Amino acid sequence: MSHVSPLATAAMSVDQEDDSDGVNVLAVAWQSRWLILLFTLLGGVAAWAYLQQATPRYTSLSRIFVEQKLPSVLAGESLGAFSTKHLYTQAQLICSPSVLNAAIEAPENVGIETFRNTDNPLALLREEIEVVVGERDDIINISIELENPTDAAQIVNSVVDAYITKYAEERRSDVVDVVNILRSEKQRSDQDLEERRQALDEFRRDHVTLAVQSKEGREGNVVTELFAALSRELNATQIELLEAKTRYARAQKMLENPDQIPFLMELARTAQAGSRSGDLDGQIQMMEQNLIAQQAKWGPGYPAVRLLEESLAKLRERRAEQQQATLNAYVDGLRQNYELLAQRRDELQKAYDKQFALATEVSQQAAKLADLQEAYEQTSEYCDTLNKQIREVNLSENVGAMNVSILEVATPGIQTFPGRRKTLSLGLAFGSMLGFGLAWLRSMLDQRLKSIEEIASVMQLPVIGAVPLMAGSRGREGDRSVGGRLVALQPRSTAAEAIRTLRTALYFGIGGESKTFVVTSPAPGDGKSTVASNLAIAMAQANQRVLLIDADMRKPTQHETFGMTPTTGFSDVLTGAVLAIEAVVSGVAPNLDLLPCGPIPPNPVELLNNGMFSEVLEQLLRQYDQIVIDSPPVMPVADSRMISAMVDCSLLVLRAERSTRRISVGARDELLRVRTQRLGVVVNAAPIHRSNFGGYSGYGYGSYGQVAYGHEDAAEARPAVRRRLKSMADEDLTSIDG
Q1: Between the CA atoms of 607, 609, 615 and 618, what dihedral angle is there, to the nearest 10 degrees?
Q2: CB of 583 within 8 A of CB of 619?
Q3: For the chain, how far is it from start to end, CA to CA, in angstroms?
Q4: How many CB atoms are located within 10 Å of the residue 569 CB?
Q5: Burial letters for 196-230: b for 16+ Cβ neighbours within 10 Å, e otherwise?
């Protein structure tokens, strides 16, 4: 009971909102294809009608190339007409009022139809004329769109001619301005060059040595080199002075501290390798040993012993005086070294300061010389450039002019508005979009599940069968009896074959080795009772002992399906009034028994929850191979959820084109919450003519053999078929396509 199939676990992880609200665009388009086609045709018709009523307009185009020729010396200057954005400037000039007025007043444009029909020709041209500079080239495109194609071509050509004429009239003044600018600039540059040459020569005369060294390419001079040497020496002396000061201060502190005297003495002895203090130490050591020996031999008061003691005391005093002299000499030496280094530092600092002043002055002079040299060279180079440009200028022809080349003369253009192909395409596209929008809106408002693919996508569960619409699935009691036993009464019908396909899919699909099956639906009227009774009959026809339990203790129907009026049933078994085997009605069909509902109790949920149901199932499984349970719908009541938690496999019946996304997903989630072990979907009442519900046709299956389902003469054929199917299952066959 605790096992949950991987498919059910995956379904639990799917977002409920996506399942219930998602729309398959392709499916919506295919299902509403006739609506989309109708609106597409209506859009095309509307576009065609618009084309018949719209006034055509024609576009004429002229293309010109404007080449600017300026001296390169002025290329970087912003001097009026010589702007780097001259193409855009010329485009604005073409559509300027002066050029447009000249085109309007041209003799060939007097009295043309376009100007006769307007009170303000200039405003008309400014609104309609379009001047565009090419993005990838330097071509200027002049175009206009008018109702008269001849007038359009004539006006464009007149505008181009007016622009060229206007440019030719002002070209001479531009040439004179350019020449004057060049000459003035040349005269000023020559004067600057002479002044800078004189300043450079004068500076070199005043600083001969520096100038010569600079010409020879030397990086320094005597002053700077001496300054560098003094700087290095001063830095080294500063470091030595700091070290000497540190040693002297440390010796002074050690001399004042008696505990540090031995260490200081060791430093002094190390510094004075030729000291004789070592000899005195040896003599004292030898005398101490001799004294010890004499005292041991003669005793402390012996005259020889006293003489040795006096000599030893004198040696010790002499050694102390010598050590003090050594310490004083060592400390005094450190002090003298420190004072000498300080004096040397002061002398070096004076020389350094003096040389620094000289080096600074020399550096300033060198920098000034470099500036003068660079200024002279730049001015000389600029003068050379001006001379070169002046030689290239032709003062008699087109100096600084812009050559205008007409690449394409405007001709009466073709119709550009309204574009037939574009208008028809837009009309068809708008019509199809409107049709699809209406179809999509209808699909969003209509939450019904319409295809097996949509059901599988929304439910995220396997669709193990699709049963076509069966007679009697909805209607009077007599019709329900026929529909509920259709597999037995009409074994060759498409509905009966669909039920047998469902049975096979259960045996070798999600059903596996399941023995107990519950058939339920999201809401009443989905046909779960009809599917349950027919599935039980089909299982019984497979030579299995099958029990059908009517557990719908709200609105039972199985007793009507099999035409009986029982006095006891499933509700009595749960209350303990009768035994389960006593309430079973045997032989309602071959190999099929029925446990009807019995009296409708006031508390069905409490009966299912009293612990008797699981015990009843265990007892009945000893007598039957499979048990099919018809339970109430999932959403209105909780009965089916409790039953699903106790059986091996649950079948959720959805009615084609009636069950909605939201209620179906809600039923699935409710069954998964009670941890039903296996869960699959059965589509009921699928229209036979709909290919997306399985593609059932009226073709009978009897012509393929003489085995008739439900007849006794087929009993011998069933075991062999079942053994063959079992062997296929052992080869990992997980499902069989009906």
Answers
A1: 110
A2: no
A3: 30
A4: 26
A5: beeebeebbeebeebbebbeeeeeebebbeebeeb
Contact 58, 414 (CB under 8 A): yes
- What does the H/E/C string look like for 301-317? CCHHHHHHHHHHHHHHH
Q: What's the rounded mean pLDDT across residues 152-171?
A: 81
Strand pairing report for 57-68 and 139-146: antiparallel
Whether 620 contacts 547, CB under 8 Å? yes
Positive or negative CA dihedral for 485, 496, 488, 521? Answer: negative
If one counts every other C-beta atom within 10 angstroms of the C-beta of residue 492, the result is 12
Would you call 30 helix, strand, or coil by DSSP? helix
Burial status of residue 123 (CB atoms within 10 A of its CB: 0-12, 13-18, 19 or more): exposed
Spatial distance between the Cα atoms of 514 and 507, rounded to a whole number of angstroms: 8
Backbone angles phi, psi at 684, to 5 degrees: -110, 155
pLDDT tens readout for residues 208-255: 656 445 444 445 566 777 778 888 888 888 888 888 888 888 888 887
Amino acid at 141: N
Q: Quick one: tokens of 344?
A: 């040397």
Evaluate if residue 411 carries a pLDDT over 50: yes
Give the integer Cα–Cα distance in Å for 398 and 400: 6
Block residue for tokens 């997306």: 692
Q: Is the link from the previous residue into 300 a cis peptide, with omega within 30 of 0?
A: no
Question: How many C-beta atoms lie closer than 10 Å to residue 106's C-beta?
Answer: 17
Burial-class residue 9 by CB neighbours within 10 Å (0-12, 13-18, 19+): exposed
Longest C-alpha distance within the chain, in Å? 163
Split at pLDDT 50, 70, 90, the class of 72 is low
Q: How far apart are CA 520 and CA 628, in angstroms?
A: 11
DSSP 300: T
Q: What is the mean pLDDT of residues 322-346?
A: 84
Residue 104 is encoded by which pair of tokens? 């309007």
What number of helices (H) and strands (E) belong to the chain?
28, 13
Cα separation, 33 vs 697, in Å, equals 23
- The residue written with tokens 């209506």 in the block is 42
Q: Would you place residue 439 in the very low, low, confident or very high pLDDT band (cuts 50, 70, 90)? A: confident
Strands 649-655 and 516-520, sheet pairing? parallel
pTM of the predicted model, to two decimals?
0.45
- Between these two residues, 349 and 20, which has the higher pLDDT value? 349
Nearest by Cα to 355 from 258, 510, 229: 229
Q: Provide the phi-psi class of 543: left if phi over 0, else alpha when psi is between -120 and 50, else beta.
A: left
Report the 10 Å Cβ neighbour count for 424: 17
Which residue has tokens 């062997």? 727
Task: Write out pLDDT tens, residues 2-52.
Answer: 343 444 443 434 343 444 444 567 877 887 788 889 999 999 999 898 888
